[in-house]
Amino acid sequence: MMPMTKWVRRLLIANVAVFVLEYAYPPLRMALAFVPAWIVYRPWTVVTYMFVHENISHIFFNMLVLFFFGPRVEMRLGEKRFLWLYFLSGIGGAAGSFVFPNVAVIGASAAVFGVLLAFAMYWPKEKILLFFVIPIDAWLLVAGAVAFELYTGVTGTQGGIAHFAHLGGLATGFLYLKWSDWRTGAGRRAFQRAMDPGPSISMPGKSSLERWRSIQVDDLHELNRDEVRRLLAKAEREGARSLTDVERQFLDRMASR
User: Fold this and answer.
1) Residue 127 forms beta bridges with which residues?
2) Strand positions, DSSP E, 4-141
3) Would you name the residues annotated as active-site residues?
4) Which CATH code fits 6-178?
5) pLDDT tens, position by position, for the chain (257 residues)?
6) What is the three-state SS of 107-169?
7) Residue ranges, CATH 1.20.1540.10, the chain
8) For residues 221 and 17, what is the distance between their CA atoms, to the nearest angstrom?
């Protein structure tokens, strides 16, 4: 069983709590739902709609995806960036729902799609059991989800589902991750240029490798421990420059703990 992380646990609890409250007091659902045409009068609903669900199956599948994929993404991004990803993806879902401005939108699906996308971007070859039976690469699962949402959204073959909200969550999550990776990578590169303007030609990346080797792997959280070992093995085998900006930034963060 994958260890639970702080914000995934809190999001799970918050969603379940709101679900119980809305069934105890049905008018709460409409009060928290997002209707694009009403955004001027109810701006808070771009966030609150993420915590409202129509029925048991709706909340179950959203929380199932968050439970399985969220902890690993949170450990990779850190708490702050994980929350930005989650809520920006949800807000992006609200933006995508403007295709049908008078239709109420509810559910955490757009936010959860952002988390699933992050998992596929960082671990594209990770095998996921589709329908708990069929093994499929994470990147292929997300690519299939995008194609499905586009097809059903354009053709209207599945009414009652906010397909364009899902696509908005995916698109916003992708843009945030790319921006965040570029920003953290740019900051790291600027720091390295200031500290080490003349990289060694004979042993490129040596100082980085030495710093990463000093990481106390056994003291890390289980998820971070596995990732550090994987990245260190890659750096030892292929050289420090074989790592992406995100991977190097992750190791730097672990080394500075």
Assistant:
1) 137
2) 127-130, 134-137
3) 109, 166
4) 1.20.1540.10
5) 457 889 999 999 999 999 999 989 999 999 999 999 999 999 999 999 999 998 898 899 899 989 988 999 998 898 999 999 999 999 998 998 887 888 888 989 899 999 999 998 888 887 777 666 677 787 777 787 677 666 554 555 444 456 678 788 889 999 999 998 887 665 555 555 554 433 333 334 447 777 888 887 777 777 777 888 888 888 888 877 788 877 888 888 888 76
6) CCHHHHHHHHHHHHHHCCCCEEEECCCEEEEHHHHHHHHHHHHHHHHHHCCCCCCCHHHHHHH
7) 6-178
8) 28
Quote the pTM value.
0.70
Kindly state the tokens that stand for 37.
């045409």
Q: CA 245, CA 23: separation in Å to the nearest integer? A: 46
- Distance CA(35)–CA(104), nearest Å, equals 4
Q: Which amino acid is at 85?
A: L
